[in-house]
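User: Hey, my collaborator sent me this sequence without any context and asked if I could get a structure. I don't really work with proteins. Can you help?
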Amino acid sequence: MLHLIYILLYLYITLIQASTLNWPAGSYGLPRPINGCPPYWKEGLRYQDTEDNYSNNKHSISYHLSGSVNDHGVRQEFCIKDDSIFENGDDVKWPDGQYCIYKYGGNCPKGLIEGWVFWDDENQDDLDGGNMVAGFVPEGVYELDTLMYFCCNNKGNKSVPIDLPVAKSFYLLAFNSEECQQVRGATATSEFVKWDDEDHGNTNSHSVIVPYGVKLDPFDTQLHYCYYDTGICGRLGTVCQNVSIDETGLEGKSALTDESPSTNQDSIFTPLNKKGNKARAVAIGCGVAGIIVCSAVAGLAIRQYLSKKEEDDRKVDKYLSEEEIFPLPDHLW
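Assistant: No problem. I've predicted the 3D structure and written it out in structure-token form, which is a compact way to encode the shape of the chain:
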């Protein structure tokens, strides 16, 4: 019985640590997964009109990004962390590794290197309506073409796991290769999106430091993403298997079915989800180790979570307004 209690306490401490880990300090952005952004982050989108003739827009078979890829264009959606919402004095730095994030604001977070990518989008906008932008987006220029800035880390080893919050699935961008940086407590899956950029007089360009995939084709833009699924292995604080999707896993227009992520109900335009995973994680541990002993631990976790949620809600209400949730642009659907 005592041994069982020790196991439960260990699981509880591990779960609490995984759930309360803070995102690194600073302002920046991440790709938005279909399950939404971290609580209280801002959101936005960029729709890019791509080449009309024999469109070759593609995405990998494994695809958990919010947004869409079809014959007419590519819609990116973003999660933006604005430091004005998180005035808690934390100085958590991005850990050494190999990955990229979006730049937001004047500077990259400490230790990350700035880079940029320029998309030469479709010149003719009479067919598809042209480019558009809404909400909060990475640092860049969003006009007839698209310029976007990134912040990349090249100081570590991808096989050495780094610690990031795993209470909810998230994305990083791959750097140096399609292989993903390992994150403790998450299963990493390599995914990609390919833009069929303007065919006539193409002026695509980029800096030396860019996410992986940009340099593969001078006339079309490709980005490789790393999707971190924080399932049951995430709750146990372990390193999960890395999964890669190679070029044989291409999906084009035939991949866009009624189950496309762009139709997911947890949309960028729904209210921000303020629910946590701490109580649910402890409940999973209860089922494994025994309901009777674990109920006290679960009760403590629930009380702590509810108290923290009330505090966070009061803090965020000061900063959030209805203007930060944008209506769905009908012409994109």
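In plain terms: The chain has one domain: 24-264. You can pass these tokens on to your collaborator as they are.
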